[in-house]
Specification:
Elements lengths: L1 H12 L13 H11 L3 H13 L8 H10 L4 H14 L6 H14 L3 H14 L6 H14 L3 H14 L4 H29 L56 E9 L2 H11 L6 E6 L2 E9 L2 H15 L4 E5 L1
Antiparallel strand pairs: 1-3, 1-4, 2-3
Helix pairs in contact: 2-3, 3-4, 4-5, 5-6, 6-7, 6-8, 7-8, 8-9, 8-10, 9-10
């Protein structure tokens, strides 16, 4: 059981280190981390415990030692306990936002999406200028999508993409998740277009009162049936051709998106791989990304069939987008 704990901790504490996380400044803590990474966890933990015992809780180094103790912990419970101490007892220290992000990652790894969301929102509220915002946005996107809250996921991802323009790798990771936001927008636009073609049957709609709710003025005696008014002389009855022509509904085009990359060169490389297939390739610049899309299909079903074929031939995760 202890081996599984340590393996899980290594996955969380070492494999998903945020690229902008603060590095330990004390060489003794750096050595402890290196010792743990070399598989000597007991020695690393003993060194950190000795350093903690010789440091005053009011020393600015103290929260950094607690954070390092979490990174070399032997169990998930110990790791969480030390991170919570940093986040709560030393919430104004420079290590509190790192600790909160670690707690988010731990909660996500155990599918505790409510806990992850709570720590994410605290991170945003208490540390609005943290350099960890782009990394937090990545985990927020995954957390909120899995928790079936796409609106929150897309809001976080958009903020993260805006704050990470100089980090191409992170931009790609955020952009990949943000594709699901594009799908939501495309789906909403398609539904709105469908709703706009339906007749307005609302009684008493503003600007167009319903004849069912507005009594007709008549000169006949009360109780007498209403009489149809004759057209005035010299005014021929209106014909359908006299009314304004109806605009035809806009035709939606469906394409298959195969990539969303940070640079134009990356988009050209992706397009070059599919051109031998004889398909139409377009590149759309949107949200700081170059999105490479394939084909031009009149129905979503046809595009979905093409996406399945491209997935088999090219790999990856191509998906359908709607374009007006």
């Amino acid at each position: 059981m202890r081996v599984s704990h340590i393996g899980w901790l290594v996955a969380v504490a070492l494999s998903i280190v945020p690229s902008n996380a603060r590095a330990q400044t004390d060489p003794r803590l750096v050595d402890a981390l290196r010792t743990a990474q070399e598989g000597q966890g007991d020695s690393a933990r003993a060194a950190v415990v000795r350093l903690l015992a010789g440091t005053s809780p009011s020393d600015t180094l103290y929260p950094q030692i607690l954070y390092t103790q979490a990174m070399v912990a032997g169990t998930a419970a110990d790791m969480r306990r030390q991170l919570q101490r940093v986040a709560v007892e030393y919430g104004t220290s420079s290590w509190a936002d790192d600790a909160l992000l670690r707690l988010v990652q731990m909660d996500y790894a155990t599918r505790n999406y409510e806990g992850a969301a709570r720590n994410l929102e605290r991170l945003r509220l208490d540390f609005p200028s943290t350099p960890l915002l782009p990394q937090a946005s990545y985990w927020a996107g995954r957390t909120y999508f899995d928790a079936n809250n796409p609106a929150a996921a897309c809001r976080w991802l958009a903020d993260g993409m805006a704050a990470s323009r100089n980090d191409v790798e992170l931009q790609n990771q955020l952009g990949y998740l943000y594709q699901r936001c594009d799908l939501r927008a495309d789906s909403g636009a398609t539904r709105a277009a469908g709703d706009s073609t339906r007749p307005d049957t609302t009684v008493g709609a503003a600007g167009a009162p319903s004849t069912a709710s507005t009594p007709r003025s008549t000169d006949s005696a009360p109780g007498a049936p209403p009489t149809a008014s004759a057209p005035s002389a010299g005014s021929p009855p209106s014909s359908p051709s006299d009314s304004a022509p109806l605009e035809p509904p806009a035709r939606t085009t469906y394409r298959v998106q195969i990539a969303a990359v940070r640079t134009r060169k990356g988009a050209e490389d992706a397009a070059r791989k599919v051109r031998p297939l004889g398909l139409t390739v377009v590149t759309v610049e949107d949200g700081g990304l170059y999105k490479v899309r394939i084909g031009e299909y009149r129905t979503r079903e046809a595009a979905q069939t093409a996406a399945a074929s491209l997935r088999t031939r090219l790999g990856g995760s191509p998906f359908v987008v709607a374009e007006p």
